[in-house]
């Protein structure tokens, strides 16, 4: 009932493609997070599914029904916005009951649904308050409550947590995940926050400039990014990128100033086309460690950032900067030379021009 299918969905504003050939098949009960930088087309995509924006071309199906020409109210969806969009003159109960009243749902049924949603969201004691008498977190719960009482086939959420402070955002993230575990309603959730994407999604859709870059579960996105953009977008601190040359000398080697990496023979087949050329090496900060011997990279430490449970080292390798995550007891001083070795099973190589993943 909550399956959502987008087929070749396009949205143009004038000559600009806000969304370009968007395709996805979302299973009933799935939690999908659409993530990407500002302006990549996330909200436009969600608004097309909601029916708030008409696609330029392509088809959208909700619960097996083609909804291209259906009004938002006839799509069996409920939307939760960043600004909550509560009615200021109504109390919490009335805000949650409003859409049901419009649909002539019997009073007793409205009462049951509102009280049940209030119980799930722990806002039972605020039912008679007006939105202005609530904190940001409580207002967001009411906004969620209003979506829940409608018992839609699909929840559509557009950056619902971005007006909350950092601590509350983490709390509400868990609440929404719990809510989904309980209700199992198909959810499409838009955010620019990659941590929300990683922690909440069954599958993540990474977008850039209106184009889907990759659709996969969070671990696959992290371990096997489709290209350099996805690799750099997911992960904190982000993946390090180093321009180097791939040379054949006694096996395959990556060479750059301050860097020499002999690659495992097993990689040779995939790299045959780029020998003698520049490639981009990708190494996550957690996949490097101080070397016992000469290591792969000869670095100079610039800044040490203690995070409590670990230290982030900002280092320079030749003219290229990197960030390394190390144990808290490893505290070199700025200016110190440190050799690092990479976990060669975890490195990535990208085509220097297109950014497409080679390994
Ligand atoms: P953000 O995270 O900043 O909300 P987004 O990824 O949700 O960004 P969209 O709001 O979907 O991005 O916008 C995608 C592109 O379409 C942007 O380039 C934006 O400027 C453009 N756009 C969005 N709405 C309109 C509109 N009504 N008229 C013209 N251009 C628009």
UniProtKB/TrEMBL annotation:
Residues 4-234 form the ABC transporter domain. One of its GO terms (cellular component) is ATP-binding cassette (ABC) transporter complex, substrate-binding subunit-containing. SMART domains: AAA. Keywords: ATP-binding, Nucleotide-binding, Transport. This is Carbohydrate ABC transporter ATP-binding protein, CUT1 family. GO terms for molecular function: ABC-type transporter activity; ATP binding; ATP hydrolysis activity. GO terms for biological process: carbohydrate transport. Gene3D superfamilies: 2.40.50.100, Nucleic acid-binding proteins, P-loop containing nucleotide triphosphate hydrolases. It comes from Sporolituus thermophilus DSM 23256. InterPro entries: AAA+_ATPase, ABC_transporter-like_ATP-bd, ABC_transporter-like_CS, ABC_transpr_MalK-like, ABC_transpr_MalK/UgpC-like, Mo/tungstate-bd_C_term_dom, NA-bd_OB-fold, OB_MalK-like. Pfam families: ABC_tran (PF00005), OB_MalK (PF17912).
């Amino acid at each position: 009932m909550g399956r959502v299918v987008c087929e070749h969905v396009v949205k143009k504003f004038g000559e600009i493609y806000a969304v370009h050939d968007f395709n996805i098949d979302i299973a009933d009960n799935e939690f999908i997070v659409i993530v990407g930088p500002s302006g990549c087309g996330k909200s436009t995509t969600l608004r097309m599914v909601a029916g708030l924006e008409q696609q330029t071309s392509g088809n959208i199906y909700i619960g097996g029904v083609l909804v291209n020409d259906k009004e938002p109210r006839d799509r069996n969806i409920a939307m939760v916005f960043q600004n909550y969009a509560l009615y200021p003159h109504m109390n919490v109960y009335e805000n949650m009951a409003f859409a049901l009243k419009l649909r002539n749902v019997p009073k007793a049924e409205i009462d049951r649904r509102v009280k049940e949603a209030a119980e799930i969201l722990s806002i039972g004691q605020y039912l008679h308050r007006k939105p202005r008498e609530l904190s940001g977190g409580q207002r967001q719960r009411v906004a969620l409550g209003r979506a829940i009482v409608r018992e839609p086939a699909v929840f559509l959420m557009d950056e619902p947590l971005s007006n909350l402070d950092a601590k509350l955002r983490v709390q509400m993230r868990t609440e929404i995940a719990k809510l989904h575990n309980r209700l199992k309603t198909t959810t499409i959730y838009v955010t620019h926050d990659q941590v929300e994407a990683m922690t909440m999604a069954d599958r993540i859709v990474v977008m850039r400039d209106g184009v889907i870059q990759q659709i996969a579960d969070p671990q696959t996105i992290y371990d096997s990014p489709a290209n350099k953009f996805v690799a750099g977008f997911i992960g904190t601190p982000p993946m390090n990128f180093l321009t180097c040359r791939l040379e054949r000398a006694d096996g395959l080697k990556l060479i750059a100033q301050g860097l020499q990496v002999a690659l495992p023979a097993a990689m040779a087949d995939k790299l045959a086309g780029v020998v003698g050329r520049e490639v981009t090496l990708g190494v996550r900060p957690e996949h490097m460690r101080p070397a016992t011997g000469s290591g792969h990279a000869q670095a100079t430490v610039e800044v040490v950032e203690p995070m409590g449970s670990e230290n982030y080292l900002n280092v320079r390798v030749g003219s290229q900067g990197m960030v390394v995550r190390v144990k808290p007891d490893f505290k070199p001083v700025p200016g110190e030379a440190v050799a690092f070795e990479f976990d060669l099973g975890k490195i990535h190589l990208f085509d220097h021009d297109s950014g497409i993943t080679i390994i």
